[in-house]
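re: ur question from yesterday

yeah so i grabbed the chain u mentioned. its 196 aa long if i counted rite. heres the sequnce exactly as i have it in my notes:
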Amino acid sequence: MKDRTVGGGSPAADRKVTDTHTLSAHVAQFGYTPAAARLEVEPRSLAARRMRGLITVVVCIAVAPIVFFIPPHAEWLLALVVGGGLETRRQLLAQYRVLSFEGECPRCGAALRMRSGTLLRLPHGINCTSCRTESRLEEGPVPEDAANVREAAAPLTPPQELAELDAATRARIERLMKRRRPTTAWSPGSSDWIDS
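ran it thru and got these structure tokens back, copy pasting raw so excuse formatting
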């Protein structure tokens, strides 16, 4: 926990940001070894989240009568209700406000970016602009057994499997592999049937 001042010298701009935390986190993606990440956040209290949600609801209620008179009437009102509901939900669920983030994509190793001020609830989806994949930002250090995820999930190659089997089973599998025919499917374009 540390205190720091944010602003540019004026009394209104010099406000104290207190209670910042540096979270140990990791970026995970299915099939790849998770990458460590550093996340500096400001926790949001339940009271602050409720207040922001209430402000969003009040603003939506205040704007609703004005928006109703803009043609097409119902669509604007529906968009305001849905958008206001989603923003209220986001304000209520976000546990942290991001101050800084450093992490890399588990798939391609490119640096991931997250804007300062992003409202965050972990686990959080994060997109890689380099390889166009989505990963999950999860709280906690990289799991100790995560380095072996890919090796444990990789199937054994057929020669390795055959070497572990007894001779009779190996011979039977080899006979079946020789007899195996490629799978075929009937389609109208491949038949010699003529419409007369």
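noticed a couple things. Confidence is low (pLDDT under 50) at residues 1-15, 153-157. also Helices lie at 46-68, 73-93, 149-153, 158-164, 167-179.
anyway ttyl
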